[in-house]
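Researcher: Predict the fold of TerB family tellurite resistance protein.
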Amino acid sequence: MFRNLLSRLFSEDTAPKPLATEDAEIAVAALMVRVARADDHYHASERRRIDQVLARLHGLGLADAAERRTVAEMIEAEAPDTVRFTRLIKDRVSVEDRVALIGALWEVSLADDHRAPDEETAIRLVASLLGVTDRDSALQRRRVAAGR
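Model: Structure tokens for TerB family tellurite resistance protein follow.
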């Protein structure tokens, strides 16, 4: 199943095909991992936050969320450039869900109580590629920061 997701990431096929629910969850989790790893410091607090966000978003227990994160870490390590990776999500996820995804990325980025420029740059890139405005991204960042 996850091999299928990787093959879609590496495929040059431009015709959108629906993602299985689990594949979509893994793709989103892999973006979270990519942002968390952007500053070359992938902290336990970031991994815990990814697990918590996945559990909340998908109605999973923490053990299942951690399992999805582990798979997402492997997918992220093998995934092609962020452009192709986000295209897979953009073509299949509503704009409201993409804005919520940016909020989730801010949660992961701020999980270690440090605003890392590399992580912020990664989020700006992902937001742009997903068609989320800078304004919506900033609103999500403020919402997340206010909830801490």
